[in-house]
Every structure is written in C-alpha cells, then in structure tokens.
C-alpha cells in the first residue's frame, strides 16, 4: 500500500442522531471503573472506584442505539443514498461510522498456485499500491489485496509451511440498503479471487518456515539472534502477523516468535531485522526462548507478540502493538489489562525506538477479563500525539466452540496524555511497569474509545449474517485480525473511506493440503474466510490508503 499524505480538508460535521464524547487524554467512566484504588490514586483519580459496568450490558445498550437507528440519508455521486451515520467525537475531531456496506467469502478449501490451501488470510492485509479504483461514478470498486497468512495450519501442530503473501483481486459493490438480505444475497457485495503468491526467504534464499521456533540462530554483525525451526533445521521461523507495504515495494512484517519486525525486498527476500527492547524479548533461564509452546520468564507471552503493524504515511515512523502484556506484567493472563505500543523512527541510519506506551486493554463483562489486540492502523498525528484505529476481539464465533461473540470492536486510541516509557527501565530492562496488574505511579496508559461494533446484530442481519446461532456459514467468524483503508473516491465526501477487515480461518477445512500432506481439521466444519467492509468518515489526513 502506498503511504500518501493527504491535504487537510475542511470537515463539516453531518447531521447525526448519536454523538459519543471521548477524550483520549483522560480515562472515561467505564475505564476508571476497571482500575483498582491504587491505580486510580496514581493517576490522580480521587473518587472511590465504582463497580465495573458489564461489557455485555453495554453491548445491548449499543445495539439498541446502534448505527442503523437513524433514517436520514444523503446522496452520493453514484446515485445511491447512504446513512448519515453515527459520530464519535474523539480528541476534538469527528469520526463517523456510516455502517456495514459489504460482505463476502472465500471457500475454506480454496487452493493457491502451489496447490496448497489458502487460509489464515486475515492475519494482515494491504492494498497493492495504485490498484484501488472506482468505475467512473458508478457504485463499483475494484482493487488487489496483499494478504498475509500466519504460520499455516496449526490447530494441532505447526508444519513446514512456507510463509507467504496471497494476492486477491476484489470487487466491491457497496450496499447501503437497510433491508435484511439472505446470506447468498449479502455475500454478493464483495467478491474475492485468488491471483498469485509470493514466498518469503531469508537473506541466503532459504525458505521461511511456519514451524515452531525451537532453535536460535546466533547473532551476527548484521542481525540479532533469530528464531529457527531447530538446531538441525536452520530455517527462519516466522509467525507472521502485521504487514506494512512501502512505496518502493519493500515491506515490513511483524511476527510473534521473536517478536521481531522483518524488512523484506519486493521479491520476498529478507533485508534486515528490527529487534524489540529487552523488556519484550522472551528469556528463559537467562537465554532466548522463541518457542510458542512454553512461557518464558520475561518478555512477550507465547503467541502474543507483535500482532499489529502500521506506519505513518510518509514512512518516517513504524508502529507495532503487542497482542497482550509482557510476562513480567502478567503475560497473556486475562487478569492482566496492560499491553504496549511501540514506535520506531525510520529516518535514522538504523531504526530507533523513540516511543513506547502502555495500553489499557478493553475487558469482558462483569469478570473484567482483558481482551487482546488484533490489528491497528495509523490515522493522524500532530507534534505531540498520534491517533490509531485498533481492532480488538474475543475468539468466539465460527472456528470456535462457542458461537456467541460478546466483543469484536474497532476502537479509537491516541497517545495524547499517555506516558512515553521508551528508553526507561520498563523498556531497557525487565522491570515490570504493572507489577501484580497495577500500573506503577507516574505512568499513564492509553485508553480506548468504542467506534464500530462488528457484531451489531442489525448490521449483520442486513447481510444474512448472525452471531450466537447455528454453526453454519452464516455465523460470524471468530477471529478478525486485519484492517485496510481505501478511499470512497466520492467528491461529495472526500474524507469518506472504506474500512475492510478479513477473518483468519486458521486454515480449517476437511479438504486441506499443506507442506506435502493432505489434512482434515478436527473442527469438522468448513470455516470460510469472510470479509467485512464499512463506510466511515475520517476527520483529516487518514494516512495509508489504497
């Protein structure tokens, strides 16, 4: 995806039926209620903590006052009309959710040009630079997505899957009608067709593997110590998650084994590696331990590395988010509410970590269990702060044993008012920033604000989808881990964008083929890849676009 700086445009707030006020510089009522009295005191909150509101109750309330309760619409240049939308005021700017407008599927047993199962596409995606287009002034859009599966089919064990990109040609015909459709009607709004694959290799041309990282390749003058499959199988092991595509065709990939950020050439060959600070590296008994099968003593928790990756539009800064907290801060334990966001300056001779923040994760209902991050995307910045849209979810839905999801949301977050802990003891050492789940005094965390409810029942029903019902193809996927932005190319609404998200189906099919072997997943059902598309309005300078 090309990183473009858009001119700041005058934004006129449309008529709305719902306004949500939010300040990223302070905790909202719900998040204040999540904090212990010790945390509240350390952040200057003097009133006693109130019992946390149940997240489920908030969901029901939001559904009752959701994005489709309004009837006012406005015309577009394509001749169709769109909802005015629901506006969230965040950081003094307006963000508008105009609703779900597209849905499509790709068969779980689809194969790529290597004859292997196409799966896990939702781990990350970007548009091929310059591919996004609108057919005149019609309501038809086309483009090519670069999708990045993670480590292959691994519901039982990992395989020697060659990590890769899968290119998909997509067609979008946005549907703004409020009427309920059947599933077959709904999924016609987005079509996805496999195009080609790009395989990853290390600097020596050795294929990159999805196998668990049981070994360590020694550091060199040009590279930190790297995760490999084993001492006898010296293949770089990569559990690919985030993806940023640069204007020159090279790209960055974040992973969960390291967790590292890898810089690849346009042809998929490893160029260089960015190592995280000491607080993040997985250490066991004083040595690096990259495996995903056991907890280290400190650093990232297993399978909880750099889940999301994004960049500023000029390519000067690269950002990563850890899926959950560091082990010294409670790790992947759902009682641990704090993870971290990292920012590297790419204008220096070598990438330099210049920003690091603690992020307060959203929580579930009355049990207040933390919900991990899945992806995020740069939206705008000024001289003092940066704003992102972040995807957070539970894992319930198709592909899981529980069909009823209670949390799948796009959130707005900002570094405004949060404490930069880069180059402090909380970053350069394994000193915990939240010992016992309590944030240390003097450190203020980033807090999220709700923006889009992915599992809004009325929105899903418009496309023949459901949440909490039968385990069939109409059930919303459990795992959503990616996002992309594409301009609506609508001169009447120059700040309108399509927000896309792909599901990660974990390669679950009864008709699979990978790494030279046939497989049939024990789940017993076909888990198709799903894609959802929303139309949103961003205040200005929305960053990376197709």
What does this structure look like?
With 546 residues, the protein is mainly beta. The chain has one domain. The chain contains 6 helices and 32 strands. It has helices at 29-34, 37-42, 55-64, 183-186, 425-428, 457-461, and strands at residues 19-22, 73-75, 81-83, 86-90, 93-106, 125-127, 133-134, 141-147, 164-172, 190-199, 215-217, 226-230, 233-236, 240-245, 251-255, 261-264, 270-274, 283-284, 287-288, 306-311, 317-322, 338-345, 352-360, 373-381, 386-393, 408-414, 449-453, 484-487, 496-502, 512-514, 517-519, 529-537. The strands form 9 sheets. The chain has a 6-stranded mixed β-sheet with strand order 1-4-5-32-29-28, with no helix packed on it. Strand 4 and strand 5 form a beta hairpin. The longest helix has 10 residues, at 55-64. The chain is globular. Mean pLDDT is 87; it is low at 1-71.
Give keywords:
5-stranded antiparallel beta sheet; 6 helices; 32 strands; 6% helix; globular; disordered N terminus
Q: State the helix count.
A: 6
Helix content: under 10%
What amount of the residues lies in strands?
Answer: 25-35%
Shape: globular
The profile of the biggest β sheet is: 6 strands, mixed
Radius of gyration: 22 Å
- Biggest sheet strand order reads 1-4-5-32-29-28
Number of strands: 32
What is the mean predicted local confidence, pLDDT?
87
Number of domains: 1
The chain-level structural class is mainly beta
């Amino acid at each position: 995806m090309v990183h473009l700086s858009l001119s700041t445009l005058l934004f006129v707030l449309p008529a709305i039926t719902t306004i949500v006020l939010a300040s990223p510089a302070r905790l909202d009522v719900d998040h204040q209620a999540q904090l212990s009295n010790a945390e509240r005191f350390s952040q200057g909150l003097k009133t006693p903590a109130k019992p946390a509101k149940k997240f489920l109750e908030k969901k029901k309330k939001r559904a009752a006052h959701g994005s489709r309760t309004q009837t006012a619409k406005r015309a577009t240049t394509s001749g169709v009309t769109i909802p005015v939308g629901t506006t969230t005021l965040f950081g003094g700017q307006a963000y508008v959710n105009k609703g779900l407008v597209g849905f499509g599927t790709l068969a779980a047993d689809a194969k790529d040009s290597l004859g292997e199962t196409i799966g896990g596409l939702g781990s990350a995606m970007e548009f091929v630079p310059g591919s996004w287009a609108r057919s005149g002034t019609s309501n038809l859009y086309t483009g090519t997505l670069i999708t990045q599966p993670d480590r292959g089919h691994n519901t039982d064990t990992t395989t020697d899957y060659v990590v890769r990109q899968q290119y998909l040609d997509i067609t979008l015909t946005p549907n703004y009608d409020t009427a309920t459709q059947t599933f077959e009607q709904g999924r016609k709004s987005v079509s996805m067709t496999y195009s080609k694959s790009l395989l990853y290799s290390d600097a020596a041309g050795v294929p990159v593997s999805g196998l668990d990282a049981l070994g360590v390749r020694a550091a060199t003058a040009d590279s930190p110590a790297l995760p490999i499959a084993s001492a006898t199988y010296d293949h770089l092991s990569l559990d690919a998650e985030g993806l940023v595509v640069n204007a020159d065709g090279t790209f960055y990939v974040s992973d969960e084994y390291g967790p590292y950020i890898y810089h690849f050439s346009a042809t998929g060959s490893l160029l260089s590696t960015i190592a995280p600070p000491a607080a993040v590296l997985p250490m066991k008994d004083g040595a690096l331990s990259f495996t995903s099968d056991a907890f280290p003593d400190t650093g990232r928790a297993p399978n909880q590395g750099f889940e999301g990756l994004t960049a500023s539009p000029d390519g000067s800064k690269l950002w990563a988010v850890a899926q959950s907290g560091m082990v010294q801060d409670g790790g992947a334990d759902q009682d641990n509410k704090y993870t971290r966001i990292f920012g590297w300056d790419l204008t220096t001779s070598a990438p330099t970590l210049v920003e690091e923040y603690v992020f307060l994760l959203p929580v579930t209902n009355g049990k207040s269990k933390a919900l991990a991050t899945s992806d995020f995307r740069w939206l705008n910045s000024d001289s003092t702060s940066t704003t992102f849209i972040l995807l957070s979810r539970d894992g319930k839905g198709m592909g899981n044993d529980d069909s009823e999801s209670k949390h799948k949301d796009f959130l707005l977050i900002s570094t405004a008012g949060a404490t930069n802990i880069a180059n402090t003891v909380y970053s350069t050492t394994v000193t915990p920033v939240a010992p016992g789940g309590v944030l240390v005094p003097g450190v203020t965390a980033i807090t999220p604000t709700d923006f889009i409810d992915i599992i809004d029942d009325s929105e899903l029903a418009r496309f023949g989808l459901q949440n909490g019902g039968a385990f069939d193809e109409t059930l919303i996927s459990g795992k959503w881990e990616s996002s992309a932005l594409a301009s609506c190319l609508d001169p009447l609404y120059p700040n309108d964008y399509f927000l896309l998200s792909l599901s990660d189906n974990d390669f679950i099919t009864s008709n699979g083929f990978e790494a030279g072997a046939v497989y049939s997943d024990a789940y017993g059902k076909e888990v198709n890849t799903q894609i959802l598309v929303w139309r949103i309005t961003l205040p200005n300078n929305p960053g990376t676009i197709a």
